[in-house]
Write a structure and sequence with these properties.
The chain is α/β, with parallel strands linked by helices. It has 14 helices and 12 strands. Strand 4, helix 6 and strand 5 form a beta-alpha-beta unit. Helix 1 runs antiparallel to helix 2, helix 2 packs parallel to helix 9 and helix 10 packs parallel to helix 14. The longest helix is centred in the C-terminal third of the chain and has 20 residues.
Length: 384
């Protein structure tokens, strides 16, 4: 499935996996709404047998995402959580996983509340310090899973350093690249073995479809992920695949604007009297600013701000006019969430306290509206 990187990112986003339809010449990949395929004879088909196994629309999407992340294959699932759960099917009873302590709350929930029931064990560490990863690896460790930047505290992990630690111990490294997309960060080029996304977010970009993807770097991984797709059936539908293909075509231009708007909004918030602290790797006072500059090609549009109390956070949320108080991120519109009651509610009060996720913390996914309008809305909502 691998596509050679002969063209630039934007060109590949538009063309790789998205060739005109051979039958009609349609420039958009058709939505193949079929559950099965006519076979020419017993044991002879045209490359497809049953839609749970393969679908031409999903195949095109997987080729596209594989190209953008620089892997050897990509495998799409019905949601980001379905993708991360599928990745953990590589594990067996007794295996151990090291994970970033500040991951999306749903990731920790499925690890601790579902997969732990099958005899897997998990250790959560601050992976922004690579030495913590090295100290947490055991003989039974099979995988290290990191988010960078983390959700919602925006901590950065040195992918290359952690990859070197993992590979020296015979451990694979997976990276959740949802917050930056392959346009702003290339984990495989930095040594990652697997990249995953909630494609619901920046890859889709329009807040109208759920999805997840695993990008592999070995045939062994690819065989496993294809087998899981076949056996468990948590695949991405043809229509959702079409929506994601459409979104990917504009990924480069959208991410440029997200990044530009994110930088401007972060600078504004850093100087606002109602904001106690801004968490954004693009600001020079961020503790991993230099690392972010080194391993990312931009800082993106994810920002968290500390407002000091639940009362102030709620007042801010209720005064919003342009931005929407909503779960999720990565859409063209500005989305603002309250991690303590939304994304990280399942972590519990004690867990949130350890991570610094206070009742006054708000996470902002800066959209691609005119940046002056975004800033004006945030200013009035903050009581500026």
């Amino acid at each position: 499935m691998r596509t050679e990187k002969k063209h630039g990112f934007a060109t590949r986003a538009i063309h790789d996996g998205q060739q005109p339809d051979e039958l009609t010449g349609a420039v958009n990949v058709p939505i193949y709404l079929t559950s099965t395929y006519q076979q020419e004879a017993i044991g002879k088909n045209k490359g497809h047998e049953y839609a749970r196994l393969t679908n031409p629309t999903r195949d095109a999407l997987e080729e596209s995402l594989c190209s953008l992340e620089g892997g050897t294959s990509a495998h799409c699932f019905g949601s980001g959580m379905a993708a991360i759960t599928a990745m953990l099917t590589m594990m067996k009873t007794g295996d151990h996983v090291v994970c970033s302590d500040n991951v999306y709350g749903g990731t920790q929930r499925v690890f601790d509340k579902v997969l732990a029931n099958y005899g897997l064990t998990f250790t959560y560490v601050d992976t922004s310090c690579a030495e913590n990863v090295a100290a947490a690896i055991r003989p039974e460790t099979k995988l290290v899973h990191i988010e960078t930047p983390t959700n919602p505290m925006m901590a950065i992990t040195d992918i290359r350093a952690v990859a070197d630690i993992c590979h020296a111990q015979g451990v694979e490294l997976s990276v959740d690249n949802t917050f930056l997309s392959p346009y702003l960060q290339q984990p495989i080029a930095l040594g990652a073995d697997i990249v995953m996304h909630s494609t619901t977010k920046f890859l889709n970009g329009h807040s109208d479809g759920l999805g997840g993807v695993l990008v592999s770097t070995t045939e062994e991984q690819a065989e496993r992920f294809r087998f899981v797709q076949k056996c468990t059936g948590g695949i991405l539908s043809p229509f959702e695949s079409y929506l994601l293909l459409r979104g990917v075509k504009t990924l480069a231009v959208r991410m440029k604007q997200h990044d530009a708007n994110g930088r401007a909004v972060a600078e504004f918030l850093a100087g606002h009297k109602s904001v106690e602290k801004v968490f954004y790797p693009g600001l020079k006072d961020h503790p991993q600013h230099e690392l972010a500059k080194k391993q990312q090609s931009g800082f993106g549009s994810m920002i968290s701000i500390e407002l000091g109390s639940l009362e102030r956070a709620n007042a801010f949320a209720q005064r919003l006019r342009l931005g929407f108080l909503a779960e999720s991120l990565g859409g063209v519109e500005t989305l603002i969430c309250h991690p303590a009651t939304m994304t990280h509610a399942a972590v519990g009060a004690e867990g949130r306290a350890k991570l610094g996720i206070t009742d006054g913390l708000m996470r902002i996914s800066v959209g691609i509206e005119d940046v002056d309008d975004i800033i004006a809305d945030l200013d009035q909502a903050l009581g500026g």
